[in-house]
Amino acid sequence: MTSSKRFVSEPLVPSVAGAAVGGEPQLPPAFTWRDETLHVKRLIATGRSTKEDRGDVYLKRHWFEFEADDGRIATVYFDRSAKPGRPRWWLYSLTSIPER
């Protein structure tokens, strides 16, 4: 009875427009992915990743790992450099629920 982590890399639609506090995006309470809704039950971890361009370092992504209400663990990120009209939120990976 082990769970498996699966790389997804697909866009997400947040349930509410993204609010920012101090320039940091806030994790929405839910996301639509494919034909289902991933409700955030519990935030597990947050992080940031950067990129370097011509010697300058820029904040690229805000990462969030959360437990969904169905027990799956999702890793999502907010892409700060997304072009207008392109998705900003992405589902990076999803851990399946162990079968009983």
Q: Could you explain how this protein is built, in words?
A:
It is a single chain. The strands form two sheets. This protein has a seven-stranded antiparallel β-sheet with strand order 1-9-8-7-6-5-2, with no helix packed on it. A two-stranded antiparallel ribbon has the order 3-4. The chain is globular and about 50 Å long. A hairpin with a 2-residue loop joins strand 6 and strand 7. With 100 residues, it is mostly beta strands.
Summarize the structure.
This protein has strands spanning 5-11, 13-14, 20-21, 24-25, 30-33, 36-53, 56-68, 73-79, 89-95. The chain has 100 residues and is an all-beta fold. Strand 5 (30-33) and strand 6 form a beta hairpin.
Distance between the termini: 6 Å
Instruction: Give the rounded overall mean pLDDT.
Output: 90
User: Largest beta sheet: what is the strand line-up?
Assistant: 1-9-8-7-6-5-2
Tell me the Rg in angstroms: 14 Å
Poorly predicted tracts of residues: none
Specify the structural class: mainly beta
Query: What fraction, in percent, of the residue positions are helical?
Result: under 10%
Counted by DSSP, the helix tally is: 0
What's the β-strand tally?
A: 9
Keywords for this structure?
globular; 7-stranded antiparallel beta sheet; 100 residues; two-stranded antiparallel sheet
Topology (elements, then pairings):
Blueprint: E1 5-11, E2 13-14, E3 20-21, E4 24-25, E5 30-33, E6 36-53, E7 56-68, E8 73-79, E9 89-95
Antiparallel strand pairs: 1-9, 2-5, 3-4, 5-6, 6-7, 7-8, 8-9
